[in-house]
């Protein structure tokens, strides 16, 4: 199993990944609370970027409304916990089912009726906006007033109910990110992964070869939605409050997908590199503004736009592919 997992990965790449993992494991003992919160955000965006990458990078289906699955997962688990005291790990089942069903509905409507490209992207935005408006008037989850989770402590860890210190959430997010990375690595080496890449490059040619493109597109959408819903659960219990305008808004979707776009769509390491660069630099810029006493509204969004423009103009394949070639790691993943 391990040999199959590491097949085709250079020793240098394995060594670098293990060093990075060791640093991340030790981070809570080496940094303060603020830096730990930034690292949590980096891992959060890396995980969601990896989930989105399955849909877009592997199968070629552009989703611009991925905040839908984050919101559905977050609200499902949080509402069950607030109203009935149900553990988020049990509520996670409801989150996955609801988000997976929403992804299946979107995929069925799009793929059965030939909606693709930019029209599919618009369809995903529309569903996210429907959810935002609907939850704004959904009294059971407090509508636009926001759903608040009880905060009992920040020192004693209750993993079953996801109540506890930021370090507990950090390690949970780290485990999820590592698991998502390994899952995507295995998927790319599987028959399903090859089918996805064939569909991404040329749906017509894939269909001519006998690949059931409807079925495998649906696999990508549902899996991506289900994985994203897990991030929504962690988001809800980490921040302890949910507002429809905050979690379903299109700006949230754009934040989620910038990591893999900057890092490299369709690559394994790209979402991690993009999440680190964007989050670390954006937070550094915010702190710099605070230190010099200058407040510029929307500076983070401007920074994101600048990074995206720079990558589109000079690194259309993302930051990771040329960086991997520079480090001699370009064979660690299929970038074809």
Describe the overall structure:
The protein has 336 residues and is mainly α. The protein has one domain (2-327). 72% of the residues lie in helices and 1% in strands. The chain is built from 15 helices and two strands. The chain has helices spanning 2-5, 11-30, 33-58, 67-84, 88-112, 118-136, 166-188, 191-201, 203-208, 213-239, 244-247, 250-263, 270-291, 299-314, 320-327, and strands spanning 147-148, 241-242. It has a two-stranded antiparallel ribbon with strand order 1-2. Helix 3 crosses helix 12, helix 4 (67-84) crosses helix 10 and helix 12 runs parallel beside helix 14. The longest helix has 27 residues, at 213-239. The radius of gyration is 20 Å and the shape is globular. 41% of the residues are buried.
Rg from Cα:
20 Å
Instruction: Tell me the total number of β-strands.
Output: 2
Domains, number? 1
How far is the N terminus from the C terminus?
Answer: 25 Å
Q: What series of H and E elements makes up the topology?
A: HHHHHHEHHHHEHHHHH
Q: State the helix count.
A: 15
Approximately how much beta-strand content do the residues carry? under 5%
The biggest sheet amounts to:
2 strands, antiparallel
Low-pLDDT sequence parts: 332-336
Residue-averaged pLDDT: 90
